Amino acid sequence: MEENRTQQNTALLILDVQEAIVKMLTDSTPFIKSIKKAIQTARNSKLPVIYVVVGFRKGYPDVSPNNKSFSVLKNGTQNLYTEEGIKVHASIAPEQNDVIITKKRVSAFTGSDLEVVLRSLEIKHLVLSGVSTSGVLLSTLREAADKDYEITVLSDCCADKDEEVQRVLITKIFPRQAEVISSEEWYANNHS
To answer: Do 74 and 60 touch, CB atoms closer than 8 A?
Structure first.
């Protein structure tokens, strides 16, 4: 009975898996394959799938010059203010009942209404996936832990340009605040 209650209060978060961001990965094929399986697992289990994308207003008035991560966008070629620029990767496109949230900073919580949606859906357990592990995943995991969410990280559904940083976060840092498992393990846990 406890597993069923937990499952009903669980949501899969797909973080920053946008066309423009996935392009920065050397080989996104295994990552996308794993994330597709996780999405299918969530849908088969009737769990909410929540996509969080990073996006801004045209001209980036919502980006501070003090923000080292995002201030480079103002003079760059990435357009994270158009519909095309914030589009979720086509191979894992949201379906009609999925929730799409736009955030303004690295954490999925900052500058978004994610917390309002999670409260409305009575979500207590977050299953995290996305790109990049050293960015949105780390920031969201830490903030979610501080907000007392139960957290699972799907290790093969996380990607980062730096393989060493990826390894350290997944094997040494994330396990301090989250259960870290593969999408296969998560599938098995939801189909036993």
So the answer is: yes
CA pair distance 162, 141, nearest whole angstrom: 19
Q: Which residue has the tokens 């920031």?
A: 139
Round to whole Å and give the CA distance between 98 and 89: 14
Tell me the CATH number at 8.
3.40.50.850
| Local structure of 86: helix, strand or coil | coil
Burial group, residue 62, by CB count within 10 angstroms (0-12, 13-18, 19+): middle
Domains identified in the chain, total number: 1
Helices (H), 2-59: 2-8, 19-22, 29-44
Amino acid at 149: Y
Q: Which two tokens stand for residue 106?
A: 């690295």
Contact 170, 153 (CB under 8 A): yes
pLDDT digits (tens, 9 = 90+) for 134-160: 999 999 999 999 999 999 999 999 999
Whole-prediction pTM value? 0.90
